[in-house]
Amino acid sequence: MAVRLVSNEVSDLCIGKPAVRSLPPSAATVGDVLAALRRGDAPHLAVLVVDRAAPEKRAVSGKLCVADVICFLCSDGNLASPAVALERPISALLPKGGGLVRRVEPQFSILEALDLILDGAQSLVVPIRWVGRKKNLHGGAGGVVADFCWLTHEDFVRFFLNSIAHFSPIPTLSIDALGLVRSADALTVCHDEPGLALLPLVRRALSDHTAVAVVTEDGRLLGEISPASLCACDETISVAAGIATLTVGDLMSFIDYFGSPPDSLVRLIKSRLKQKGLKQMLELMEDELSSLSNSSALSSSSDDELGGKQLRRLRSRCFSMGRRAEDPEVCHPGSSLVAAMVQALAHRVSYLWVVDEDDYSLMGIVTFADMLRVFREQLLPYP
Question: Which of 113, 231, 287, 333 shows a CA-CA span of 20 to 30 A to 137?
Answer without folding.
Answer: 113
